[in-house]
Design brief:
- The complex is a heterodimer of chains A (135) and B (126).
- Chain A contains three helices and six strands, in the order H-E-E-E-E-H-E-H-E.
- Chain A has a five-stranded mixed sheet with strand order 4-3-2-5-6, covered by helices on one side.
- Chain A is rod-shaped.
- The N and C termini of chain A lie far apart (96 Å).
- In chain B, helix 2 packs across helix 3.
- Chain B is of the alpha/beta class.
- Chain B is built from three helices and eight strands, in the order αβββββαβαββ.
- Chain B has a five-stranded mixed sheet with strand order 5-4-3-6-7, covered by helices on one side. Chain B has a two-stranded parallel ribbon with strand order 1-8.
- The chains are: A alpha/beta (135), B alpha/beta (126).
- The interface between A and B is large, with 48 and 58 residues.
- Strand 1 of chain A pairs antiparallel with strand 2 of chain B, so a sheet runs across the interface.
Chain lengths: 135, 126
């Protein structure tokens, strides 16, 4: 039988929502697996600001650590393995808690080398650090 | 259960950040002493391996650095500058930005790094 044009009849209609929970769980698993919370971490440092008084220090109160462009490290003029900086600074701090560590990084040295040494200074609980760039 | 699933789904959808590979190519250094950074009042400074500088995703040439940093520091007192520098970047580039920050009196910096487990790794990746 031909249905007259423009006339629609709807029978009993039922929305099947049973699979919605499955779909929800599927998407939930996807987002749990792929989620990466953006937590940024870093080494905090407070720089000397404009107008800060320049402190004069005795050479005996300063430990200079030089990071060279080839990755080598000198501490108080002596070549040391980069990973030995922490122990060296710890022993110096035990003798002289007010020592100022000057980290002089060669301009051509990599930033990663400087961070590696700075990290060791922080691990040694060194609070008085001076960053310097050297040619 | 379905309601809880949808609730969690909405939470994850709202908090998910899909990682995109485009942008500034930076390999962060690793550090054991890295601490969680604040998110408020942060100025992001990016330095790639060649030493080029971006501030808040805007490329900044060397001669503009002072004006941009001074402007940001004046606009946001107590600013924290997050250094997202490539571990292979020359220290010269980092040092230049640090000098300009001191001049602009923006003294709080944070060297963004990835967390290295205690005792893991002998130094920076090369």
């Amino acid at each position: 039988m031909k249905r007259p044009r423009g006339k629609f009849t709807l029978g009993p209609c039922e929305f099947q929502a049973a699979s919605m929970a499955d779909l929800g769980f599927l998407l939930l698993v996807f987002f749990i697996v792929t989620t990466a919370f953006a937590i940024e971490q870093g080494i905090p440092l407070v720089l000397p600001g404009r107008g800060r008084v320049i402190a004069k220090l005795k050479p005996s109160d300063v430990l200079e650590i030089r990071a060279h462009a080839d990755g080598s490290v000198d501490a108080a003029g002596v070549r040391v393995p980069p990973n030995a900086v922490r122990r060296l600074v710890e022993s110096r701090l035990a003798r002289d808690p007010d020592v100022v560590v000057v980290l002089a990084t060669d301009s051509d040295a990599s930033y990663g080398d400087m961070i590696h040494i700075l990290d060791q200074l922080k691990l040694a609980h060194c609070r008085r650090i001076s960053l310097r760039s050297s040619e | 259960m379905g309601d809880i699933a949808f609730l969690l789904l909405i939470f994850f959808m709202a908090t998910t950040i899909l990682k995109t590979e485009e942008g500034i190519d930076v390999r962060l250094p690793q550090a054991e002493t890295a601490e969680k950074q604040k998110k408020e009042n942060v100025l992001e400074v990016w330095i790639d391996r060649t030493g080029r500088v971006w501030i808040d995703e805007r490329f900044v040439a060397g001669e503009q650095l002072r004006a941009v940093l001074a402007g940001e520091s004046a606009r946001k007192p107590g600013l924290v500058v997050a250094f997202n520098a490539d571990e292979r970047a020359p220290y010269r580039a980092v040092s230049t930005v640090l000098d300009e920050l001191k001049a602009a009196n923006a003294v709080h910096v944070s060297f963004t790094s990835e967390t290295r487990r205690r005792g893991g790794g002998a130094g920076p990746n090369r």
